[in-house]
Design brief:
Mean pLDDT: 97
CATH architecture: Alpha-Beta Complex
Low-confidence stretches: none
Radius of gyration: 17 Å
Helix content: 25-40%
Number of strands: 15
Strand order of the largest sheet: 8-7-9-14-15
Strand content: 25-35%
CATH topology: Creatine Amidinohydrolase
CATH class: Alpha Beta
Bound molecules: magnesium ion
Largest sheet: 5 strands, antiparallel
Oligomer: single chain
């Protein structure tokens, strides 16, 4: 079932998303060689809990043990933070975080270079960020999910990279994952019609090599099948009469 949200509900989702945006900005300033993914997770949890009423949304979700998903290099998504996983110069780390606030959810992700990225890694990050931007631009009232999917896929493939098929974006609101699914590949003019009040998380996962993935023995971490790099960017977006509103874009002040 697809739920459309009114202005009051969207304002509440936006409030949760703003905590997410502030966590990500806080962490972006702290990613450097020698920091562990476990450090990032602890800092994120403390940051979220300092905000009255806010809680980490991923911790305990489907049994996930942490506040963040931290996915380094060939890890695509759902990496588990640990004190042992120290970031090194030249790594890229995807940080995905969800927050629950007053019964509503926000969700966003960024992939951050540790120190100076390789030219290939930089291109991958730029292409994935651009794909998310193109997907958001396609999220207009009256358009369809396939318009978002196709915009993302075309942007990624034009850059010579490939889109992960098995994992998708999603509706979000009073649950962290709702209908509809938002695939990162597909065709224009297909899928659910976008109406004002629909709130979705758009999240391209992009591999530098082939699109294949596999799951590690921890039953969580998804990695590229060929060992190539992978990047992930995500925003929570509301469809409004005037177009897409990016609820998880950081608002100053
Ligand atoms: Mg998500």
């Amino acid at each position: 079932m697809i739920t459309l949200r009114n202005r009051t509900e969207i304002a509440r989702i936006r409030a949760a998303c703003q905590v997410v945006a502030r966590v990500l900005r806080f962490l972006e300033g702290r990613v450097e060689p020698g920091v562990s993914t476990g450090d990032l997770d602890r800092w994120a949890e403390e940051f979220i809990l300092r905000h009255p009423g806010a809680e980490p949304a991923f911790k305990g979700l489907y049994g996930f043990p942490c506040t963040l998903c931290t996915s380094v290099n060939e890890e695509v998504v759902h990496g588990i933070p640990t004190a042992e996983r120290e970031l090194r110069e030249g790594d890229i780390v995807s940080i995905d975080v969800g927050v629950r606030l007053d019964g509503y959810y926000g969700d966003a992700a960024v992939t951050i270079p540790v120190g100076e990225p390789s030219p290939r890694a930089r291109q991958l990050l730029e292409a994935t960020k651009l794909a998310l931007q193109r997907g958001i631009e396609a999220a207009q009232p009256g358009a369809q999910i396939g318009d978002i999917s196709a915009a993302i896929q075309e942007t990624v493939e034009a850059a010579g990279f490939s889109v992960v098929r098995e994992l998708v974006g999603h509706g979000i609101g009073t649950r962290p994952h709702e209908e509809p699914q938002v695939p990162n590949y597909g065709r224009r003019g297909q899928g659910v019609r976008l109406r004002a009040g629909l709130v979705i998380a758009i999240e391209p996962m992009v591999n530098a090599g082939g699109h294949g993935i596999r799951t590690l023995d921890d039953d969580w971490t998804i990695v590229t099948a060929d060992g190539g790099l992978s990047a992930h960017f995500e925003h929570t977006v509301a469809i409004t009469e005037r177009g897409a509103a990016v609820l998880s874009a950081l608002e100053e002040g």
